[in-house]
């Protein structure tokens, strides 16, 4: 492939776009070519605040970005309620699509997005950044080891943070007309993705939401949880919240081993991460300690997980542009499965914590 970078445009000036701007700059096969917002003033302020090059085009509309013939791909960090419209528009304009999570308000909307991408031959990927961290394949190695880990039995995932009063009053993630899924769609997305990842993306059969979710006065979820069940006996639980101290714990338990992560979504340190594993664990003779003690696995990285994500997405785009390859289907498939579980949990919440079957 040539050294020509994939040219990105960004739709919107959301806070998370700052991180992805830096990632596009750091990725060796990508470059930022345009930023578009609802006004030239907002786009210009974003460019100034983030030190963007004078060569980056400033547009006062999203249409201008997707209409630009020099843009190869767009990153879309807009409110979830706008994803369907702008993702489909971008795909029809032959722009490869990196879409923030949650990908849609429900799986029916996502299926429209996926169909537009497939019909126009463009690559789709969601913005679940930890999936691209070099630590993730190391975790997969352990979970795939029949001797060290064995058969998956249980997953527990927690992602919470204590939002301030300004967030609770005004953030788009608690507005029913913008991001009606609230904490379930935001931090809950990561919990569900971690569970599916541990289960090798085998969908659960049923879910039941935990009782007494916390909703704001508009009915948007601020805190909730759920249990997931598979026909072969696997179980999982998760809790997600805007109302508790920052926690990102994931525990995966097999017949022979256990994996523990304390910083899955955003690592404690950008350049070095770790995880803990234990295998064939027992107490010592007097039950005063463990034998063997858990092992710590350190994983260094030169690039941030965001830059790794942009780099992998750009690699796929370049394969399509320069070699005529087909878009990689695993990414929309993974997104769809995550959305299916989101939908089922939401349905269970709406029905007073009734057991709900997961769609297919």
UniProtKB/TrEMBL annotation:
What InterPro entries does the database record attribute to this sequence?
Answer: Gfo/Idh/MocA-like_OxRdtase_N, GFO_IDH_MocA-like_dom, NAD(P)-bd_dom_sf
Any idea where the GFO/IDH/MocA-like oxidoreductase domain is? 145-259
List the Gene3D superfamilies hit by this protein, alphabetically.
Dihydrodipicolinate Reductase, domain 2, NAD(P)-binding Rossmann-like Domain
**GO terms for molecular function, please?**
nucleotide binding
Among the Pfam families in the record, one is GFO_IDH_MocA
Q: Where is the Gfo/Idh/MocA-like oxidoreductase N-terminal domain?
A: 6-125
Q: Which family does it belong to?
A: Belongs to the Gfo/Idh/MocA family.
What's the name of the protein?
Uncharacterized oxidoreductase At4g09670-like
């Amino acid at each position: 492939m040539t050294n020509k970078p994939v040219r990105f445009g960004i739709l919107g000036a959301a806070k998370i776009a700052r991180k992805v701007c830096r990632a596009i700059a750091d990725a060796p096969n990508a470059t930022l070519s345009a930023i578009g917002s609802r006004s030239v003033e907002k786009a210009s302020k974003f460019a100034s605040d983030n030190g963007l090059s004078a060569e980056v085009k400033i547009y006062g509309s999203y249409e201008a970005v997707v209409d630009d013939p020099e843009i190869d791909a767009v990153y879309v960090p807009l409110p979830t309620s706008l994803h369907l419209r702008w993702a489909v528009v971008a795909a029809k304009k032959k722009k490869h699509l990196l879409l923030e999570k949650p990908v849609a308000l429900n799986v029916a909307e996502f299926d429209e997005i996926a169909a537009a991408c497939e019909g126009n031959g463009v690559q789709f990927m969601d913005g679940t950044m930890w999936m691209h961290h070099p630590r993730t394949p190391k975790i997969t190695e352990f979970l795939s080891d029949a001797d060290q880990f064995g058969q998956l039995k249980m997953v527990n995932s927690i992602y919470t943070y204590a939002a301030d009063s300004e967030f609770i009053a005004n953030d788009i993630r608690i507005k029913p007309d913008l991001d009606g899924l609230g904490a379930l769609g935001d931090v809950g997305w990561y919990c569900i993705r971690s569970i599916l990842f541990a289960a090798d993306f085998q969908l659960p059969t049923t879910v039941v939401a935990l009782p007494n979710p916390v909703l704001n006065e508009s009915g948007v979820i601020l805190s909730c949880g759920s249990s997931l069940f598979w026909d072969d006996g696997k179980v999982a639980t998760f809790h997600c919240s805007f109302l508790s101290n920052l926690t990102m714990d994931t525990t995966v338990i097999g017949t022979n081993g256990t994996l523990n992560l304390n910083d899955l979504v955003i690592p404690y340190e950008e350049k070095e991460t770790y995880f803990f594993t234990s295998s064939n664990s027992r107490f010592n003779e007097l039950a005063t300690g463990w034998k063997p003690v858990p092992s710590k696995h350190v994983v260094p990285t030169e690039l941030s997980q965001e830059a790794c994500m942009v780099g992998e997405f750009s690699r796929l785009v370049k394969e399509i542009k320069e070699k005529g390859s087909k878009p990689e289907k695993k990414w929309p498939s993974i997104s769809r499965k995550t959305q299916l579980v989101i939908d089922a949990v939401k349905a269970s919440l709406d029905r007073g914590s009734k057991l709900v079957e997961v769609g297919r």
